Write the C-alpha cells for this entry.
Amino acid sequence: EILLTQSPGTLSLSPGERATLSCRASESVSTFVAWYQQKPGQAPRLVIYDASRRAAGIPGRFSGFRSGTDFTLTISGLEPEDFAVYFCQYHGSVPPWTFGQGTKVEVK
Amino acid sequence: QLQLQESGPGLVKPSQTLSLTCAVSGDSVSSDNVVWNWIRQSPSRGLEWLGRTYYRSNKWYSDYPLSVKSRITITGDTATNHFSLHLNSVTPEDTAVYYCSRGGPGTPVSLFEFWGQGILVTVSS
C-alpha cells in the first residue's frame, strides 16, 4: 500500500499570496497522484490528476508538479474561495488507492 | 447531470452491520466505463477508500483494500440503479462520514470525480 505524507499540516497565508503544498509517496508511483480540495461540510473536489493535469472547471492558478516521489500543488495567487483543506491521492491503475492526511490552507 | 445520494441509518450498534445505499441518477450503474466507490472520512483515519464495484460483460466485480476486506461487501443493483455497502462487525472506529463516488469516464477510473454529499454514521451502543 502506498503511503502519502503531506506537509505542512497548516499553511497560513493571505489572499493573493502563493501557496505551495507538498505530498511525498513512500515508493515510486509514476505520475499517479491527484489533489482534492475540501471545504467544511462538503465532499472533496478533484483539482489535479496525473500529477499536473487540471480537472474540468479548475482555474489556471492551480498547478501540479512531480519530481521523483515528491509532488507539489501550487496555487498562484490565493483567492478567498481557495482557503480549504487539500488532500493528495495515489490513483495508480491497481488499487488500493490511498490519501494523504491533508494540508489546511488558512487565512493569515 | 450525475447525482449521487447516500442513505441509511445514522446510528449503528457495535458488532452489527452498517448498510448504506447510494442512489444514482444521471447515469446507469451498469455502464461499462465507470466504477462505483465507497470512501469514508473520520478525524482519526482521514480519507479511506473502502472499495469499488463495477459492471463488465454482464457481470459485477468488486475490489477492496486489505484493511476492510474480511468484513465488507459492495454490490450493484441494475434494477434500482443503486449500489450498496455492507460493513459487518462494526466498532466505534467505523464512525465516519461515508461517501459514494463515481470513477470515470472522462478521467481515469481510479479518481473520484463525482461524490455524494456524504452521510454521517455513528457506531455506538
